[in-house]
Write a structure and sequence with these properties.
This protein is α+β, with helices and mostly antiparallel strands. 36% of the residues lie in helices and 19% in strands. The strands form 7 sheets. It has a 7-stranded mixed β-sheet with strand order 17-18-16-15-21-22-23, sandwiched between helices. The protein has a 5-stranded mixed β-sheet with strand order 3-2-1-6-14, with helices on both faces. Strands 4-5-8 form a 3-stranded antiparallel β-sheet. The N and C termini lie far apart (60 Å).
Length: 507
Amino acid sequence: MGSDADQHDTTNARGARQPLVLAVDVGTSSARAAVYDARGRELVETDARAQREFRATPDGGAEDDAEAVLSDVVRVVTDAHARADALSLEISSVAVSCFMHSLVGVDAQGRAVTPVFGWADTRAVSEVPALKERFDERTTHARTGCRLHASYWTAKLAWLRRTQADAFSRVARWLSFGEYLLARLCGAQAASVSMASGTGLLDVHRCEWDKEVLAGLNLKREQLPRLAADDETFALGDDFAARWPRLRGRPVFPVFGDGPANNVGAACVTRERVALMIGTSGAMRVVFEGDAPDELPASLWCYRLDRRRTSVGGALSDGGGLYEWMRETLALTLDDERIERELAAMRADEHGLTVLPFWAGERSTGWNAAARGAIIGLRTSTRPVEILRAALEAVALRFADVARDLEAFAPGAEVFSSGGALRHSRAWTQVIADALGRPVNLSRAREASSRGVALVALERLGAIKDLTDAPAPVYETFTPDAAAHALYREALARQESLYRAVIDRLP
């Protein structure tokens, strides 16, 4: 099996085969699949991935074709299956994590009649004022865990009903892409409470669709997928079982939200550990066993990992995507190593710039989808790499704002980070540690969400007793610099002042 298999033996001390999980992670910019062993370690020879991007439209849209995304998922599963077959690996189950908050309408035959609208689609912002008149946002937020915001189904459905009435009328059922994927692979119409909790339509306390929100949207319960039991599994349909014989008859778990799954993969499943992730976007969350809180700060959301476990946190729409936008737009042609050296050589806040990192709108902490990015303090001497550094610092300052409110749910928690953007930029990881004023432990695991759903599957299979028993990935600790932290406290105050002057004045 090669060097990695030597490290990851698939048999136990008695020679019995250990369960292996094929984990699939569907993101807005990529699809990935790989096999994980009974300790949650990736068998890297099986890794397969495909890159893609949601289409960005000038009016704020972020959408993709459901069949095109499905095709990418099928391709990576096919590649990973072929590699597992070459290694004679016996797959025990299939687990999937998927980007949250997406929306796609399907007809009675299950065919998509709308694009997949992603969380970054802000076109529904026009519906938010009317929603705030129709619903009491404080109580709705407390029940559903979600603000009235363009990223959630509440606003998207109202917008589609008003602007695309013909397509809306042809929709028999509304799904996220996770449910669409499960339906196509297994013929099942079911959503996990994990995915449903990211819609804004689920009562996160009762773990059932919220009657008040559905009534306010004039939506019938039959127009939504049924909610799967936590221990429910499905089987591949005949076509895909024939294509992937090693997966024939294997249990396929309901699709999990990639956010809570990321916490599991980062070994952050108690109040003592907070997960901070930066991929295309960013999030900071705590996952713990127990019910959803009765009250939430306006800045945070509440989702579910399953019916036993709750997730509370905040999300930023701009993360690694902003980094890439800066590199392309500012024509930063330096290689990655040179950029890293220059970023690391700068002192905290020395560029004199103040940035509002809302290129893709704002979620936490103010939840204004109409917010847009701003850069203040430019001079003729300002260099492109200084603007990039200022943007990375600005994202870190937003995380400091989230961390302040998250403290009530995870007091004194350690911070564990993951995500491709941080793995590729040690300088940014150090900036975040300095901005938070707390050590940041950077995971060396390549894919926390994939590892997370593999661990959930292993728990359901009985291979591990509890998620807290799973071995933690290896981390590298970044220690904050006290002087830099003091400078970032001043920078955060300056950023908040600019926010009040600009964003708070938006309608």
